[in-house]
Amino acid sequence: MTETESIAHTTYDVVVLGAGPVGENVADRTRAAGLSTAVVESELVGGECSYWACMPSKALLRPVIAQADARRLPGLAPSVQGPLEASAVLARRDEYTSHWKDDGQVRWIEGIGADLYRGHGRLTGPRTVTVGDKVLIARHAVAVCTGTRAVLPDLPGLDEVKPWTSREATSAKAAPGRLIVVGGGVVATEMATAWQALGSQVTLLVRGKGLLGRMEPFAGELVHEALTEAGADVRTGTSVESVTRENGTVVVVTGTGDRIEADEILFATGRAPRTDDIGLDTIGIDPGTWLEVDDSLRVTGSDWLYAVGDVNHRALLTHQGKYQARIAGAAIAARASGVPLLETDPWGAHAATADHSAVPQVVFTDPEAASVGLSLAEAEQTGRRVRAVDYDLANVSGASLYGDGYRGRARMVVDLEREILLGVTFVGPGVGELIHSATIAVAGEVPISRLWHAVPSYPTISEVWLRLLETYRDN
After folding, report:
1. CA–CA distance from 276 to each of 141, 148, 286, 311, 323 (Å)?
2. Rounded CA gap, 311 and 24, in Å?
3. What is the DSSP-derived secondary structure letter of residue 469?
4. Do the Cβ atoms of 55 and 170 come closer than 8 Å?
């Protein structure tokens, strides 16, 4: 008798590995369908988003953006020229993380009727998850919702430097006097924005040519310009050759031989799936890999294993993971009922089609950058006949009212054969709230002829839609 066989087994319809937003949503959908569900979590219920990513980072950034907006308005500007009260900002951040306690989230799990198991869960065979001395058997599905972890570069002695990752950057108790941020993506630009405003002198080191490389080039250019004006030192085309900590001071030597000193260093240089120690080898899958799935989020080659959220590498965003979770939960419930998906799916509830063409994202820098769908470069790579239509957001009445000296830009990428939108990008203060209208247009493949009849309210920044359509028509 094996060790697993000698331990008492508990059988559920569904076992969910990971209790972040994705795992919670899978469990919510399977419980709503009447399926018994176990949720396994090794850290805090609520996951990365609740404690070290979305919520704390946006709590840090909101006062920064509010102050920047106020400084653009006569009558308010003189009152908000001083520094932010960092202690108050950090205290509000702590409230939004529930002071890193998950009691409320645990009550939610219990409230939907799921069973929570604390500890490190590992697959120990098909449909089998072991957590400490407990073995959970899944009748219908195991859903891997373990998310990702920060990746650190392979630099000698980096462990001794004790660098920040996104976790330390969002949970730090005070602003370091000098902070080096390595990276040019979302985490790097958002944290550079936050800590520069909270009192740190930020140096941003970017290996590539610009910031936010997965968005339209002008997005990174406008954010770069704003960070520089805020006092950050932004250096593109800069590699890190070595990092040491000397008498408490971080010392970086760049590829050009420059020596930069700081109190802390943040590496925001990518993510890896948390699949290295969850027992994938027991079911014939290489540990540490991204899990390939179909549109119902079922792992390729399996009839019971699902991978939902970041672990499948389709779209590393909380809202996309929750969307996938809704799809996966519905698909698991349908398959458990024995009814083919297509016969029960008139609304597309079992296929994560948005992951292919309509993924929205907002970067909460100042200015904000928001996009959905394909960039111009990505659209051109598909071989379709496309056109980019650009407009200066400063020329929209709602934008000029939003704040003096408003700077921003909008672009829509048009499929010229079908006359639908393949992608939309907005950059400017307050544009994050515009992106859902663009998401509807892209996901719904709304013809441009119908978009003419979606009348934007005046005077709002949304009037940029009318200006983009006029530009498309007249040029």
Report:
1. 20, 10, 8, 11, 25
2. 15
3. H
4. no
* Number of other residues whose CB lies within 10 A of the CB of residue 1: 5
3-state secondary structure of 252: strand
* Contact of 166 with 182, CB cutoff 8 Å: no
Question: Which tokens belong to 257?
Answer: 């031989």
Nearest to 240 by CA among 262, 257, 264: 257
Q: Which helix or strand (DSSP H or E) is residue 472 part of? A: helix 464-474
d(CA 269, CA 182): 7
Q: What is the pLDDT of residues 176-229, one digit of tens each?
A: 999 999 999 999 999 999 999 999 999 999 999 999 999 999 999 999 999 999
Alpha-carbon distance of 419 to 156, in angstroms, equals 53
Q: Which of 16, 5, 34 shows the shortest CA–CA distance to 115? A: 16
The model's pTM: 0.95
User: In the structure encoding, which two tokens stand for residue 392, read together?
Assistant: 């200066």
3 state SS of 293: strand
Please give the Cα distance from 53 to 319 (Å, whole number).
Answer: 13
Three-state SS string over 310-359 comes to HHHCCCCCHHHHHHHHHHHHHHHHHHHHCCCHHHHCCCCCCCCCHHHHCC
pLDDT tens digits along 85-139: 999 999 999 999 999 999 999 999 999 999 999 999 999 999 999 999 999 999 9
Within the chain, what is the greatest distance between any pair of CA atoms?
Answer: 78
Q: Is the dihedral of CA 55, 56, 57, 59 positive or negative?
A: positive
